[in-house]
Amino acid sequence: MNGVGFQMTTINTDWRKLHGDHFAGKRVLVTGGAGFIGSHLSEALVKLGACVVVIDDLSGGSKGNLASFGPVDFVQGSILDQDLLAKLTMGCSYVFHLAALGSVPRSVEQPRLYNDVNTTGTLNVLESARQAGVKRVMFSASSSAYGLNPVPWIEAMPVLPRSPYAATKVAGEALLRAYSASYGLDTASLRYFNIFGPRQNANSAYAAVIAAFAKALHKGQRPVIYGDGEQSRDFTFVHNAVHANLLAARSSGAIEGEVINVGTGGRISVNQLATMMAAAWGREDLKPIYEPERAGDIKHSFADLAKTRATLGYEPIVGFQAGLEATMEWYKQVLPA
């Protein structure tokens, strides 16, 4: 599954109406830009007239994710390559740092790899941005930082990471705040809440829940739920994450490494999700299989958006139901029969 040749028709966000000409003619770097979220951000930036440079090692992304729009200056490479990063960052107004290894279960199995890529890689991105005189760096942080804090989650809560993945994301936030304080490089950490949408890989052993459910239902298999299914998530359609990144870049005031939630301010249980998706596939007979809860998983996620509204002027632009329908339609088109 690589997204080649299929245009999402259900949701067509008018990025220029939302963001005007702010990015027109500006050179921007998107790390991880061939990935799921990164490709949607790259697409929006292209539509806004930016000169988009993408670096991606294709370990989780695909050049096919960039095939339906253009032009993008794509470079296959790693954020661990300091010289390459420095070269690509020169002349950039903004850096959107999305490159990361993203699975909680895999991070439990490979903590050192996650630290290398997610923590050291973020340091490399910040160093390149500092040396290049970039205006602002936007970092894709994670709501997993909240751990077992009671919901709704507010940015002032203590960080309680429960997995190596979450810990690396918290480390990234700390680095961004430190670079703003020490070097005057303005930064923003955007804590994503369960982002989903077209181009999210359903074929990984660590696929996110909506992608994993879609693949199972499409193959006529029962979806697997880890735990009792009563865990709830603030599922957030990918265009909302793109919108938050663009708003953060455009912010007229310094953000100075502040952490900002990116969600919809609602939540749904995994059991509810399984029921909704099975009904949409016309396979209500495919009842979930329940497996033991996985190490590092959290019970509930739910974003408080007060700070996001105050800091960025953010409101979700696509609701859960509309986003889920568009996403399922995409999977029906691209998953093999």
List the helices and strands and how they pair.
Layout: H1 15-19, E1 27-31, H2 36-47, E2 51-56, E3 73-76, H3 82-89, E4 94-97, H4 104-109, H5 111-132, E5 136-142, H6 164-183, E6 186-192, E7 195-196, H7 209-218, E8 224-226, E9 232-233, E10 236-237, H8 238-250, E11 258-262, E12 268-269, H9 270-280, E13 289-291, H10 306-312, H11 320-334
Parallel strand pairs: 1-2, 1-4, 2-3, 4-5, 5-6, 6-11, 7-10, 8-13
Antiparallel strand pairs: 9-12
Helix pairs in contact: 2-8, 3-5, 5-6, 7-9
Overview of this protein structure:
- With 337 residues, the protein is of the alpha/beta class.
- The protein has a domain at 24-196 and 238-265 and 297-317: 3-Layer(aba) Sandwich (Rossmann fold), CATH 3.40.50.
- Helices cover 38% and strands 15% of the residues.
- Helix 2 packs across helix 8.
- 50% of the residues are buried.
- The model is unreliable at 1-9 (pLDDT under 50).
Give a nutshell description of this structure.
The chain has helices spanning 15-19, 36-47, 82-89, 104-109, 111-132, 164-183, 209-218, 238-250, 270-280, 306-312, 320-334, and strands spanning 27-31, 51-56, 73-76, 94-97, 136-142, 186-192, 195-196, 224-226, 232-233, 236-237, 258-262, 268-269, 289-291. By secondary structure, the chain is α/β, with parallel strands linked by helices.
Q: What is the name of the CATH topology of the domain at 24-196 and 238-265 and 297-317?
A: Rossmann fold
Structural class: alpha/beta
Fourth-level CATH superfamily of the domain at 24-196 and 238-265 and 297-317: NAD(P)-binding Rossmann-like Domain
Q: How large, in whole angstroms, is the Cα Rg? A: 19 Å
Distance between the termini: 12 Å
Number-wise, the strands total 13
